[in-house]
Design a protein that fits this description.
The chain is mainly alpha-helical. The protein has four domains: about 1-170, no CATH class; about 175-250, 434 Repressor (Amino-terminal Domain) (Orthogonal Bundle), CATH 1.10.260; about 255-300, no CATH class; about 315-380. Helix content is about 50%, strand content about 0%. It has helices at about 10-20, 25, 35-45, 75-85, 150-165, 175-190, 195-200, 205-210, 220-230, 235-240, 255-260, 265-275, 285-290, 295-300, 300-340, 345-360, 365-380, and strands at about 75, 110-115. It has a two-stranded antiparallel sheet with strand order 1-2. Helix 5 crosses helix 9 (about 220-230). The longest helix is centred in the last third of the chain and has 39 residues, at about 300-340. The radius of gyration is 26 Å and the shape is flat.
Amino acid sequence: MRAVAPLFRDNEGHMRRTIRLSYYDLTMHGLSETAAAWVDALERLTMRNDLALRTLLPLSAVVSSFKLLSKIERFCACCYRDDEVAGRPKYNRLLWSIDCVEACPIHNVLLQTVPYARDRKQYKFWVPGLSRLDGANLAKYAARDADEEQAQSARLVADMLDDIYQYPDAFAHGCSPDKFVRHAVSTLFGGQPMRLANHLGIARSDVCGWCSEKMKPSLPRMVLLAYCCGCCVSDVLLGNRVMLRKVYRTSDADPLNCRSDKPSETLLEELEFVFRSGSAQNLHQAAQLLGVTERYLHKLAPDIAASLVQEGMQKRRSAKDQRAEARFHDFWQSFQDLRSQGSYPVREKVAARMRRLTGTRLNFYEAARFHARACRQAETTPHSGTAQRGDAD
């Protein structure tokens, strides 16, 4: 990013400040001036003219930026695993940056949040497919199945992107969702906007606003319209008078309400079974399985809740140690490679080689600790310039 910064026409100091935001990588793909600046700079560097198609900029004349871009980085572990199997570098799909997309349309699993920090200075890893904080391989994360509505909605958004990118002339003059809404109201709901609003589960004023052209629906609302009317998002955008059918949303009732009438004795028996069987690795998972809150479990069974909390802490600590050991293994491999090449393995060289090969960046103290440990294993003496703080394994 520093290499491209001089090409920005905007204030470079402002760029350095905004680049620290945890969601900056996502704004590079959106409709903002930041995305346009990146496209302009990279096109001048690469002598290409199609990089805007790698962003959401072609949507600027079609959909509102309201609720368009997600502010958290998300990923599909199955897609990352496909990248590994195919032997290609992991990359982030553009679809993951759209806020209303909750699932992967290919694997029918829910998108997961990349571990993040508010300040990008805390980030150690920048390669797609690795956790920004600890370098964990995101392809190994377990994925949860998405329901039919979540998967189909993701497919609708993906098809919309394909239509806009492949047939830009059809969308060059903006969109007319008001025509589609009036068509849906008259075709499926007897000309009554209230019935459409009830079918969608939204306020009647929103539907009336769309019909009167006073307001345009956001992308999440257009996806909802397309799903519940059995058509494509492109039909909603262009106001096409296509054949429609009613599609009812899947039940998304709050599980807490479903469990509210279950006796405490029954919930306690279920909690004891979950605890004995090891179905939950921490209190949060137990609460999800039973459909209650963690606070309620603390009141219901304080001893079991405390044990689940302790078990979760131990598992997180163990996983953290395993990730640290994996990083040291990569460091040790780079250390040995430099020695075999006849070069003295000073800390800076080893850390730089490791980052080049694995994409993992170590902070100063962890690199110093790993270097001291590697020197002990190799029975050599640490370089005089290497910091010795925190040498303990």
